[in-house]
Amino acid sequence: MELNPDAHFAVGVNVRPTFVEAVLMDLIGSIRAETILPLQGGRDPAAITNTVVEAANQVIRLAQIDPGRVLGVGVGCPGPVANGRVVVGIPGFPWESEAWADRLERSLGLPVSLENDANCGALAEFRHGACSRLEECDSMVFLYVDYGVGAGIIIDGKVYRGEDGTAGEIGHTTIDPNGPRCLCGNFGCLEAVASVESLVRRAVASSKLDAGSHLAGILDGDWEAVSFEAIMEAVERGDPFATDALNDALSYLAIGISNLSRMVRPSMVVLGGYMFERGDGIVERLESEIGRRPSLFGMRPNRVTVGELGGKACSIGAGTLVLESFFGEAQQVIAPPIPTEVPEPSFEGTLVWPQEAEHGFVVKVSAVRIQSASDLRPAFSRIRSGEPLSVTVDVRLADSASETPPDVKVLLHWDRVALFGGNWATPKNSPMQLIDEKDGVLRYGVTLGSLPPGRYEFAAHVLGKNDIWVRTHDEHGESNGRVEVIASRAAADRSDDDNNYSLRGKEEARPKALAER
Ligand SMILES: [Zn+2]
């Protein structure tokens, strides 16, 4: 049995100032259909709701799936969202404290997860994009520079939402008290000096004053028609007005990134939004602006990189919200497909490691002595979107076993570590089954399914007459990829003819490496 990606689907929608984009994702996060629809009929809640509903229905139709299998719709919104339900406001849109999630659910007939667009982008790049490639990336800032400016902040593997869900509004922090008025009413917000829209406004304002400017030459007085593309074309042609406007915006962005880095000190700053989707040297210019700023006491500057998901980051993140609430915490263990006649190992006492190991457990010991156990594969794994995972370990017996299968029990201990949701409160144990035997080596395996995304670490506990732990950590608890066999904690401390033993209260009997951890 394997996780069926087609069992359920999620729709992710992102609202941008002039259009709505939508993706349909399957259970493992693959995009099965996508669409972009222009915003028609204004920017009021009713009009945008209609476009969102149409886009969602369109991707469901395009993917040719059973609409009954859609779990819900995630929606990214270009303004702060309170408690995942209410849009507080959107700069430039006639919205005020709109209970939009309720309205969308009535119109869609599906559960809706509503979230600020930058938070969606942060979730997507963290889970599926730039941050997912790093072995250690527990904190991240996603700076979304579009028509507005926003940030999604990930701390300890979770989107940081603040008291009511509206954290991360870096775009409306004052960066120049003498700067222009922002759509929010404040003066000199980062958004007012560094967004794509403000960049266009600035370039137009200065170009208007000089008939020799590139923009004046190509526009024939139609200043309303100036686009970001036209500005970038002017920059490429060396037009000083457009170049100054771009440099000003990037220098403010560099200040904003520096402020964010010093406050959050993330593993990575990821850039997204229209500003960085064109790829014509803007990132290099921004990097040199950042490089010109002195580092704090010589500290290593934060890693800054462009997101890997491009314009789709926010809609993918919106869909991920739905998948995330569906998967919740993993419970399901999928049995391996081979050999079915092997009896389910029974564990009289379930061992929980490491938290509860020291409190002891009772287990019936078999007569088979384990010589070694090795090659735990994988030792750790990053699950991205619920894909099933098989783990195996090889066991060698001291004496060739007379029975088949031998009376050996193998538990896989697994724990989700420091990603979304942080550590589990209680790590899980799953029985492994004998799946292969070759040259005296018994291979035990188990397939885990429906795991929520995150980083997982594994240890195998092999139970025979003596106990053996197999782990791949060094003494600091760091994964080092090596396989270690940790000799029985109990063999030395019980009589061989004692078929049952208890570790309750005997802390000194814990395995050495376990005690050190
Ligand atoms: Zn503002």
Give the topology, please.
Layout: E1 9-15, E2 19-26, E3 31-38, H1 45-62, E4 70-77, E5 81-82, E6 86-87, H2 100-108, E7 112-116, H3 117-127, E8 140-145, E9 149-155, E10 158-159, H4 190-194, H5 196-208, H6 214-219, H7 228-236, H8 240-264, E11 268-272, H9 282-292, E12 304-306, H10 313-327, E13 333-334, E14 362-364, E15 370-377, E16 380-383, E17 389-397, E18 409-417, E19 428-438, E20 441-448, E21 454-463, E22 467-473, E23 479-486, E24 500-502, H11 512-516
Parallel strand pairs: 1-4, 4-7, 8-11, 11-12
Antiparallel strand pairs: 1-2, 2-3, 5-6, 8-9, 9-10, 13-20, 14-24, 15-17, 16-21, 17-20, 18-19, 18-21, 19-20, 21-22, 22-23
The chain binds zinc ion.
Task: List its traits.
24 strands; 11 helices; elongated; single chain; disordered C terminus; Nucleotidyltransferase, domain 5; 517 residues; 3 domains
Structure, explained:
The protein is an alpha+beta fold and 517 residues long. It folds into three domains: 1-129 and 309-327, 2-Layer Sandwich (Nucleotidyltransferase, domain 5), CATH 3.30.420.40; 138-302, ATPase, nucleotide binding domain (Nucleotidyltransferase, domain 5); 333-516, no CATH class. It has helices spanning 45-62, 100-108, 117-127, 190-194, 196-208, 214-219, 228-236, 240-264, 282-292, 313-327, 512-516; strands at residues 9-15, 19-26, 31-38, 70-77, 81-82, 86-87, 112-116, 140-145, 149-155, 158-159, 268-272, 304-306, 333-334, 362-364, 370-377, 380-383, 389-397, 409-417, 428-438, 441-448, 454-463, 467-473, 479-486, 500-502. The strands form five sheets. Strands 13, 15, 16, 17, 18, 19, 20, 21, 22 and 23 form a ten-stranded antiparallel sheet that branches. Helix 1 crosses helix 2 (100-108), helix 3 packs across helix 10 and helix 5 packs antiparallel against helix 8 (240-264). It is elongated, with a radius of gyration of 28 Å. It starts with 8 loop residues before the first strand and ends with a helix. Bound molecules: zinc ion. Zinc ion binds at residues 172, 182, 184, 186, 189, 191-192.
